[in-house]
Design goal:
heterodimer, A: 480 residues, mainly alpha, three-stranded antiparallel sheet, 18 helices, 3 strands, 2% strand, B: 490 residues, two-stranded antiparallel sheet, 17 helices
Chain lengths: 480, 490
Amino acid sequence: MMNRASRVIQVAKHEIALVRARRLPFWTAVTLGLVLGIAMVGGLTVQTAEAGIRDRYQSVVDRAWNEQPDRHPHRVAHYGFLAFRDRSPLAAFDPGVESYAGTSVFLEAHRQNLPNFGEARHATSMLRFGELSPALIFGVLVPLMILIVGHGTVSGERERGTLRLALAQGVGNGEFLAGKALGLAAVFGIVALPLLAVSLIVTAIVVDPGPFGQMWPRVLTLTGLYALYLASWVLVTVWVSNHAARSHGALGALLAYWVLTCIGLPRAVPALAGALHPSPTRAEYEAGIDGELSLMGDSHDPDDPFSGALRQEYLDRYGASSVEDLPVNWGGVVSAEGEALTTRVFVDAADRLSGVHRDQDRWATLAAFLSPYMALRGLSMRVAATDPSGMERFRADAEDFRFDMVQRLNHLHTTEILYEDDRAQRVEAEEWQRFPTFAARPPPLSQASFGEPLFGLALLFALGWPIVALRWAARGVARP
Amino acid sequence: MTRGDRRTLFRLELLRVARSPGAVLALALVVAAGAFAVWGGAQRTRQMTDALRVAEATHAVQFERVLGRYPGTTEAGETLYYLAFPAGTPPTAWSGLFQGQRDINPWNHRVRLLALEGQLYDAETGNPAALAAGPLDLGFVLIVLLPLVVILLTYDVRSGEEEMGTWSLVLAQAHSAREALAAKAGARALLIGLATGLLLLLGMTVAGAPPDRSAVSVIVVVALYVTVWFVGSLSVALRFRSSTTNAMILAGAWTVAVAAGPAVLNLVSAVRHPMPEALELTVLQREGYHASWDRPVGETMEQFYVDYPHLSEYDVPAEGFSWAWYYAMNHRGDQLARESANLYAERLRARESWARRWSVLLPSVATQLALDRVAGTDVSGHLRHVQAVRDYHERLKAHFHPLVFTNTTIEDTDWTEVPRFQPKTGVATSLLALGFPLVTLLGWLLLATGSLWLAIGSARPAHDVRDRRTEPPSRPVRHRARRGEWPWTP
């Protein structure tokens, strides 16, 4: 007498044998290996080239900063600094929004520049069909393989009349379904999971992590996420195959589900969200900033009316009768005060803009409950540090760096430069080497994973509902 | 068989497709998606037109404010430091329908008289997550979704009847298998043609696209593309395979055509054409300008006169600040970055022509590139805009430099004569101007037709049709039952 578990395993073994008989694992592995090979070689080449370019120019910029001659601090504030965003090392696995976010941003006084360039800017519209990456392969193509290999797993047995045989020989309905799911999962566990792990491990070894820490925890998390996701596809496939009267119908239903969740929704939802919460165009964005700045006057102009109150405050504090008598450089004081005010406008505008983007992205989070792929994508980008929040963080870090740099220069202007004959004076070159260089702080893994719990819940939901549905199906009377 | 019989057969077939819930749902979904795409396109176009107006209004406000703040005796050069002149290329009628890269590349610049290279490349303010997802424009509906409907309507055109056991019934109504299949194909072609026509008509009406050569180009390209899919998919469906196999083959072809294939091409393109010039020109431009502050005035002016010899007749103070020197320093930045900026544009062009050449492999990419060309939303369109901005910057310089070099004051400047931006919107795109992608589509149509012809030629007589319902695995199952197991496999 065999127990329940061994009966399940028996069905699973039979499923594996059936799949092997059609030589499907071989062809799946060959196709997958080929596409994955192209994606890995290409992805890693682009990654190293792009990281190399950014490294090179960041060091050029750092050196140029340090080698500045004696300069007036305000001159240096306009000379500014170019900050380059580090490409996440795991972008070779999941590029996320990496190609669509700016690569470098010019940081200078009085102005907020938007990050510019990015791979998408150099591409033709061919890019808009999607970027080839291991993430796309395991998120979109492997599910297609699962449903092509597995759509007839139950319905085929039913069509051939072998389901009747199996049930007659004492296999329970639930055992049969569990065995089928186990068998299909084993096939893809053997074919796809090693390739997934290899692609992640190779990426982690080959690519220089830079400031991105926790590479191995990230690799492990990603492996787990994709395994869970693919498991949900196996379960859905078995459930649909059991539900459908014929294999043909099962394939149709599964293909429709795949097209909807992997191709349709991921594009339709952001489009809908964009229509509901339109982002301002750059012209509108800049017009808003211009409007607010016009209310505060010009920090280049020490006689500007806005500085009247500030002037009185300084005159009172130092007991001076005019700004020329102040022990500090009045021009520097005005610049520093002006920078603080304008920066608040810039930061508010940037926050408002990312608020609109976040409103749009919220729809994607909710839609993840309909589309497991969107749930996976949301999580995968976060773990790979290629999600929009990483790009936001770069922008915020760069803005903080800009503000600190400009204010430090304004402080030099205030203390080291005399008010009289201001423009003719210089600060010594050694001073520039004392400035810190820009270092990005990529988000840690914990924040990446738990920042948006809904994606995790959606993935669990994608795994949970087919289990419940299968259990429910197992309870009913078998339909041989 | 008479004409009337054929018509009856055709009508019957039309009715059968129209009664199949899957086909109706798919057709309805694709039309709904198309309607949404057209509406979204109209909204984006309106937003762009608004943005152009906002840019003009912002400029007018800024103009009043800057000129109002300074006494009339201020040098014009000082106010020109602040003034930003709008330079936006308006959307074409088609750009909302075939969005291309228009949501990624900047198209609405504000040009200051300063170094230009620092002003050209700032990003637009779109949401990177939405950009990465790709636009849901009419192009997507026609190129990606419509082929799915074609596949759904055709994949079991023969095998479905065989598997249902109704093939002999169909044959009983027609003279031959060929007649029956012609009626089936005709009915489906009509429905697909109607859906395609409806989508194009809707798009053109809402977007207000005039019926010019561009419209002809769009209609021909879309018709060719859909026909390639229809004929190709029929040629798979007419061979003697099971519906399941047909579905798998066509789903695989679709995945390669609209997802995996373009992604591979794009990756190869990115590997083949790295773009260090983008960052190089940024760095050079900035160094060129700022280094000039620490150099003698004369040196910078010498370099400036290389490009603008006619301005050397004016005196520029050899020591201390002057606005002439200031703008010459700015020009120095552009001068140093010129080579890498040219190289950058060249690389972009190289990428585009590479993509157009290799789109021979994928009708989907060829169609996308052709439609984007018509809409002016491709790389060429972007480069045209950038060139127009460069020209505008030169015209502004030609206008203002003499004023700056003669220290003209605000009140002595005629501000009404300031040149305005002239966009290069391009003319209607004729079929011939589409170039390589059109040849690609024609080639694919030839290929698909040949394949269909072979499929019809290889068709066995109708009585030889085997029932495909109980197709066994292609090889015997290697599964030996051991004692205590259930050997339920035959």
